[in-house]
Design goal:
- The protein is of the alpha/beta class.
- It folds into two domains: 6-99 and 188-219, 2-Layer Sandwich (Nucleotidyltransferase, domain 5); 100-185, Nucleotidyltransferase, domain 5.
- It has eight helices and ten strands.
- The chain has helices at residues 39-53, 73-90, 99-104, 147-153, 163-167, 169-172, 190-204, 221-231; strands at residues 6-11, 17-23, 26-33, 63-67, 93-97, 113-121, 124-132, 136-146, 158-161, 178-180.
- The strands form two sheets. Strands 3-2-1-4-5 form a five-stranded mixed β-sheet, sandwiched between helices.
- A hairpin with a 3-residue loop joins strand 7 and strand 8.
Length: 232
Amino acid sequence: MEIKVKILAIDTSCTVATAAVMDDNKLLGEYYIDDKLTHSQKLMPMIDALLKELNLAAKDIDVFAVSTGPGSFTGLRIGIATAKGLASGSGKAMVGVSTLKAMAYRHPMCSYDIMPMIDARNAQVFCGKYKFENGCRTLLEPQVKNIDDIINEITTPTLVMGDGAIKNMPALAANKNILFAPPHLNMPSAASVCTAAMDEIRKNGAKTPDDVNAVYIRKSQAEQEKERMNEK
């Protein structure tokens, strides 16, 4: 089904802050920054600059899209809160998409399985597995896995990407079925969030801001520490 929609997408799930605007199937612009500034410092100036360059305002956007996780707890909260604020303030719809699935959309022509990985520390990653066959098919739902388990379980050619893949590259490289995405296609991209959101809108329609929430998969380190202290 063809739809006419202008999407502004945000991804702040890891160290990267990225924003993009897509009009139907045309990418109008994208900003991508991976530096030491916090997302709270750089996200809104980035969005403001992008809209200004495109001669657009928030009211001109039809749908605001955001990656909902898994990923950095603080980063996700900032990105989702920003997208909700923009959508609510302009009275527009919103779509949330899996961070991992949106990352897979960077490689739609890949014939292999695709496993995005986000660092979860302690030799663990948030990961999912996807394959493009008449669209993006989910082979493994987002979850936390140990790197050793991933190395043992992958028996067919699989493309890995993300900061979790970079951090664990020496160990992962021992499995010859594991291939690594090139640096310029390795990290999250708001343009991919736009594309994943467009597919979601075609299938299920857009949501209200209240319907979009973070998917953390596991509790934060602070919450885990608090639970351990309470058990003592």
